[in-house]
Amino acid sequence: MEKLALDSYVMDVLMPDLVGHDHKPSAFLVYLFLLHQSRRGRHERITVSLQTIATRTGLSKSSVQSAIRHLKRRGLLDAKTQATATAPVRRIMRPWIK
After folding, report:
1. What confidence score (pLDDT) does residue 41 get?
2. 91, 84 in Cβ contact below 8 A?
3. Is the confidence at residue 42, as pLDDT, over 80?
4. How many domains in the chain?
């Protein structure tokens, strides 16, 4: 089993903000999943479908869609990168790292 090292910012700031303040625990789960996928490939661009995210996180597809919209509004996913059914590319952002 592969280990995932997280920046302390993700657990200390991002989790309470998304889960507690925004009441979007699904957004936090989706962000963690995408962060893990990006670290596997060593790229900030991830090619993964909504259905795969839903299956791997245990969320419904509509919850994943809502979470992705929220993450884009919060600047945690690149809003300019448009995923399509044939090219489900997402770009994860880490705004706390300069």
Report:
1. 55
2. no
3. no
4. 1
Tokens of 54: 């839903």
List of residues 6+ apart from 1 with CB closer than 8 A: none
**Cα–Cα dist 32/4, whole Å:** 10
Query: Which tokens go with 35?
Result: 């962060």
The amino acid at 19: V
CATH number of the domain to which 85 belongs: 1.10.10.10
Task: Classify residue 2: in a domain, yes or no.
Answer: no
pLDDT band at 3 (very low <50, low <70, confident <90, very high): confident
- 39 within 8 A of 3, measured Cβ to Cβ: no
Give the pTM.
Answer: 0.88
